[in-house]
Amino acid sequence: MRVLLMPCGIGMGHTSRCLTIARKPQEEGAEVAFASYGCGYEILDSYQEYKTLKLPDIKFYGANGELDIKYTAKKSINIPYIFLKSIFHESRIIRKFKPDIILADSHFSVPITAKLLGVPCVMIQNELTLNFSDLYPQEKKIKYLENGLKKFIRNICNLSNVIMIPDVPGSTEIPLKLNNKVVHTGPFLKNNPVDIPPKDDLRMKLGFNISDKIVLVTVGGSNFGIELLKLICDSSSMINCDRLIIVTGPEIEADFIPETQNIIKKKFIENMMEWMKISDVIVTLAGHTTIMEAISLGIPNMIIPIDNHPEQLKNAVNIEKYGISIVDDLKNLEPDVLSKNINRLLTDPEIIERANKVKEIFSNFNGTEMAVKIIKGHARDNRPLQY
Asked: What is the pTM of this model?
């Protein structure tokens, strides 16, 4: 079987969960290849574990930790050209690799290309609706854009064989026309939490004391996390922890972060879930993959969604209901407020107790195993392909 994975290349989360899924088919003898762009391509290319091909870049714009939807829309006037260019590149890759199944993670040109070439396609989406107009209620153009995008996403997803949502049932609003396509698999985790060694054992393995209070900060792969990193640095002296581990992501230049005995700076961590498990608190943006890893491990967390980013805002609302997260807007945070919230998460016994209960809920799901079963179920046989 040949499996081709095409994740959205913005940030690290889409690529990370595709890498998680890819390992099982490869272990079973499948030929696996990737195609992506941006940060996703950089991560895959640095791995050198899979054949990785480059797709045309798609960009989002903003500054100071905020997504500028209006400017992004303005700069995306050539998006139809980029879209057609993507389809052209994808079709060349598909014809050459001859996959039996394509996995597309939030990369919306792929189902069109797969349909044109008659190749089964499985989509990964953790969000099927948008709320741009809630952010700009006075902007009629944004409302028109949102309505058009909703219809576009619905029609594109309908071209796929299955839409996998890597979360638990009830977490995502599903358009009626897609109900029969959607499967809630549970999170795609690189490691099943029950198979990860105990916290104390991991701490000794990674060189930490069992009694240390550890806070892990991770901001994914985009530059939107720089402002949060600066705020963490300004707050570090007021955070009551023994070790502050800061993971910056491969595209972020973070020379402003000091490395001291108490502050550990990492560019990228391959065994991220082990480092999460040794932590007492996780501070992160509201990327879906990172949130799923944190709550599946039962780690209290502080979530700071990218301003004006509809998907991250919805992710934050979704996680908040479990009662183990403090969610705040970066614009509202000062060093004393941020440190106070982190210190509360480190010591509040009710939050720690709820975190253990949430971990039990998510332990009933094995999203990675379910995803592999779906891929196998929809892959065609290995007869010679005609394009």
From this structure: 0.80
